Amino acid sequence: MRTEDVLAAVATGLWHWDRVTGIVTFDAEAARLLGLPAARTELTESGTRARFHAVDWVELQGVISLAVAEHTLAEARIRVVDEAGKVLRTLRARARSVDGGTPALVGTVAEVPEPHPGTSPRRGAVTGDWRRHREAFLLDAGRALAEARSTAEVLRVAAGLSMPGFEPSALAVFGTDGSRVTMIGHHGYGTEDVEALLDMPLDSSHPAAEVIRTGRAIYIPSPDDYARRFPRIWPLVKRFGRRAWAFLPLINAGQTIGAWMAGFSVPVSFTPDERSVLTTVARMLAQALGRASVHESEKELSVGLQRSMMPTLQPDIPGMSVAARYVPTGGGLQVGGDWYDMISLPDGRLALVIGDVQGHDVRAAGLMGQLRIALRAYASEGHHPDAVLSRASRFLAGINGSRPGIPEEVDPRFATCLYIEVDPATGLLVIARAGHPDPAIRMDDGTLLVRSTAGGLPLGIDPDSDYPTTRLVLEPGETMLVCTDGLIETGGHDLETGWQRLREVVEAQPTGDAADGSAFLEELADGLVRAVHGPSSHYTTGPLVDRREDDIALLLLRREPLAVPAGAAPVPTRRTVLAIAQAEPERIAEARQQVRDLMHDWPDEDQKDSAVLMVSEMVTNVLVHTDGDALLRAAISGGPGRRRLRVDVADSSDELPHRRHPGEMASSGRGLVLMELLAGAWGVEPRGEGKNIWFELYEGAEAPGTSAAAPAGLEAVT
């Protein structure tokens, strides 16, 4: 008797699917089950699809793809429909791929009897509810695994997966390390339970090792099957009481990177639908582990680059404290072109350097490293600050290819830089600036003033640029702040509003906290970074924090306050000094702003305006009526409510000012008249070389022009 006759007798038909031509051949019985004449029939793929329910056809395609990939038997339940879409019967289709030179499937179809009324479908039947639960589960699992950024997070998500209809009671993820298989995570086992499985040879008889070697899944539906197939491992496994196991390869970008084990405390037959869910989860898990591995490698590289490029600050500066922060951008390698440095110089001096190479990529980080080394070399040779920046500019221009005979680079870069030579004994700061934001000084009473300094072009633009220097003195109790523009301009701020934001942070820091210089600076540095990024516990050169706009580099230098005699209350003093050359009349506006910032909390707005007007008049007179430069010094001293503003403008001319009586149309000659009307006290002091004009204003005075609040013994000098 022929095989076809035997199968027909039990209502089972044969079919053959040529995957190249798309022709599906049915024998007579299979054709009858599909509602066709009982004769050998050939249909196209689209013709075959028309005989089945659309949902079941999609399901069949997925099951077949899975079986082909795993070299296993495909099995699915499919509903046969007529031309009107009415369901005729339900069939069980089985198929297996064959190796005959061309991709093909052979299999059987048999009718599934309908359940009797009042009974439920037997286990393994695919229902619409099961499909909906499976789709919802896969969507949730995919979303959770896509959001996991580290291996630990991926394993935590995998441990919490609750699969529809069959929930694993134990999970394990295995990886490879050369010729070894290592368990990188597990759930449902104690630490002592997995010691023997933490590290195994790749050629061992463990199912995970076999899966990694072959790239094919292994399904073990019963303990007897496990003991038969893996007798050497079974004694280690049987004590856990599992009833079924699935080992699936973790394949990412075409490579097997590990294996995933799901253990079950109840029997599981591993139907095609169940295998489909497990395979889909394994694929998502492999992709998530691959992404996490790349992310962790980039982070490790970023941390290594950052630690190698960021210096260790010298903690034992006599009479001074220093703190620094570096916060990288959140994208890519999280290492950009911002940097800071601290260099020991001869005679106990030191240099503070902060800079920003254009860009936020690997090239910017590389140029930053080269430029930092060059600056250290020039500084260690003992060059003056202006010479250090001039040499650094020529060095960067050479790298950019702007030297004669060297072709232009495709992507030339420039860098801003602030170089400060510090004398800890005197607090003298010699500053050279190359297109970088100015430094700011926090007075001992908390007031923050941005100090204008002379400067030149950013490094690398013009190899012959000059960099004039500015000399400032950091007084006891004062703190200098230097930073890159990321701290100032992040969040849509410009220089003016950015400095105002930082000023609020600095001035909100309690002055009383400044007793411990190092602790005070650390708290202030954290507060400045929080003002830009919000709360975080990871700054400095430790773990990185996410960034969105620009890198940040920040340096704080504080000169320790003088000791106060026992029982004496410290009197805070804030001051500013500004030199204005004959060729810099535009800096008169800076002088006005410096005085206004110094008086930011002065209660009388009229006195503020009076002070700014007198400063403008005094400095302008020096530039117009003498051949020398003007030196402005302003200071506020005294306690709240009884403070005194003292402003001095010195020049090198011996000619003293004279009172004049200008007419209504005169454009000058009103300087001393304004002083007499607006100042609480004023005067002129001849000196050996030049003179000094000064005025004072007193907080709480009845009105401008009166010296009612002036200390005893002060009288106007005319």
Automatic annotation (TrEMBL):
Organism whose genome encodes this protein: Streptomyces caatingaensis
Region forming the signal peptide: none
EC top class, as a word: hydrolase
Keyword set, alphabetical order: ATP-binding, Hydrolase, Kinase, Magnesium, Manganese, Metal-binding, Nucleotide-binding, Phosphoprotein, Protein phosphatase, Transferase
SUPFAM superfamilies for the chain: GAF domain-like, PP2C-like
Reaction catalyzed: O-phospho-L-seryl-[protein] + H2O = L-seryl-[protein] + phosphate
Protein name (record): protein-serine/threonine phosphatase
Any Pfam family hit: SpoIIE
The protein's Enzyme Commission number: 3.1.3.16
Taxonomic lineage from the root: Bacteria, Bacillati, Actinomycetota, Actinomycetes, Kitasatosporales
Role this protein plays: Primarily acts as an independent SigF regulator that is sensitive to the osmosensory signal, mediating the cross talk of PknD with the SigF regulon. Possesses both phosphatase and kinase activities. The kinase domain functions as a classic anti-sigma factor-like kinase to phosphorylate the anti-anti-sigma factor domain at the canonical regulatory site, and the phosphatase domain antagonizes this activity.
Keyword Phosphoprotein recorded: yes
A single MF term (Gene Ontology): kinase activity
The PPM-type phosphatase domain, residue ranges: 317-559
InterPro entries: Bact_Sigma-Reg (IPR052016), GAF (IPR003018), GAF-like_dom_sf (IPR029016), HATPase_C_sf (IPR036890), HATPase_dom (IPR003594), PPM-type-like_dom_sf (IPR036457), PPM-type_phosphatase-like_dom (IPR001932)
